[in-house]
Design brief:
By secondary structure, this protein is mainly alpha-helical. The protein has a three-stranded parallel β-sheet. α6 links the parallel β2 and β3. Bound molecules: iron/sulfur cluster. Iron/sulfur cluster binds next to α6.
């Protein structure tokens, strides 16, 4: 049975959705149809290694405050972080690839956090999840005990904004990390409601 391209999208199909993906479904189907005589794969060892890395990003079990609840939700059935191969939260940094700093980093905790990071084997990545980890969050002004950004201690690869960020945002950050491992820049799509909202902010032209 061959694939036949439909000229009219089915009811309820969001045409803009396809543009949000970084590949074109129709183009890929066409390539499949024409692939009778060309079904071989050409790649590099680096690409295979990168594919293996980005498909098995194991995070270290590590949560500091309220953002950790959202991280836990992302690994539960509704959001299922396992789809990305990143659901195996490790109880030891020695078996982990990713540190998701989810919560408020206090000065007291900072040295422990650095110790855990140092114990992780290379290659390793860090995700700053939530306003607290990114820059101190609600404790920025008066929180004398809070570190104003985890990037003072460890190199951060991905910043996931929000207070707290929802699990979808964490998954988005994970996909951008996969892009980074792949060696390509992620395609950021700003949803229309965000653009509309931005226009209402007075200092935005
Ligand atoms: S960013 Fe907000 S939700 Fe996350 S740890 Fe800080 S106060 Fe809690």
């Amino acid at each position: 049975m061959s694939y036949k391209e439909s000229t009219t999208p089915p009811d309820g199909y969001d045409v803009g959705r396809e543009n949000m993906l970084d590949f074109k479904i129709d183009e890929q189907f066409e390539m499949l149809e024409q692939s009778d005589a060309k079904n071989f794969i050409l790649t590099t060892v680096d690409e295979v290694f990168n594919w293996a890395k980005l498909s098995s990003i194991w995070p270290v079990t590590f949560g500091l405050a309220c953002c950790a609840i959202e991280m836990i939700a992302a690994s539960a059935t509704r959001y299922d972080i396992d789809r990305f191969g990143a659901g195996a939260f490790r109880a030891t940094p020695r078996q982990a690839d990713l540190m998701i700093v989810s919560g408020t980093v206090t000065a007291k905790m900072a040295r422990r956090l650095k110790l855990i990071y140092d114990q992780m084997p290379e290659p390793k990545w860090v995700m700053a999840m939530g306003s607290c980890a990114i820059g101190g969050g609600p404790y920025f002004k008066y929180g004398y005990h809070v570190v104003k950004g985890v990037d003072y201690m460890v190199p951060v690869d991905i910043y996931v904004p929000g207070c707290p960020p929802r699990p979808e945002v964490l998954l988005e950050g994970l996909m951008r990390l996969q892009d980074k491992i792949r060696g390509r820049q992620g395609k950021m799509v700003t949803p229309k409601w965000v653009q509309d909202y931005a226009k209402k902010i007075p200092y935005q032209k």
